[in-house]
Amino acid sequence: MPSVCRSSLSSRAIFALFKFVGAAEKYNRSASSFALFALVLKGKEDIFTMPGVEDWLNRPLDIVQGLFDINNKKCSEKVTEYFSKKLEDKDSLEWVPSLNHTSLHLLKPNTVVRFRCMIQDMYDPEFYLGAYEVVDKSSGQVTMKSGMFQDLAECSQNQRLNLESSKNVTLDRQTFYCVPVPAETEWVKQAFTEHSCCQTSDPSTSQSSRVKRALEVDDLTPSTSQLPVPSQTGDHGADVSMETTDGNQSEKRSRMSEVTSQRSTTSVDLNFPLSGEKGPACMVKVYDNFESFRLNDVIEFIGVLSVDPELANVPACNHNGGTSSAIDGADLMEGIEEQAAHSPPPSLVPRLHAIVSHKLQHINPLLPVSLESDEGKTFVQGMMGDLGSVRDQLRCLLQQLLLGDALAADYLLLNLVSSVYARRDVIALGKFTLNLIGCQESGFSQTLQGLLSQLVTKSHLLPLSLENMNSLRLTPKKDYTANRLRSGVLQLSDRTHVLLDETALQPGQLDANGVRNLAAIGNAISWQKVDYDFEFHKTEFKTNLVFLVVSEGKSMLPSDSQIPIQPKVLPMSDAGIQTGIQRMISSGSVNLNRIRTYLGVIPFIQYNLSEEMSKIVEQDFVDARKADPSQMTQEDFHSLLVVARLLSVSIGQTSLTREVWERTKRMEQERKLRLKNTASTR
Question: Where is this region: Disordered (predicted)?
Answer without folding.
Answer: 219-272
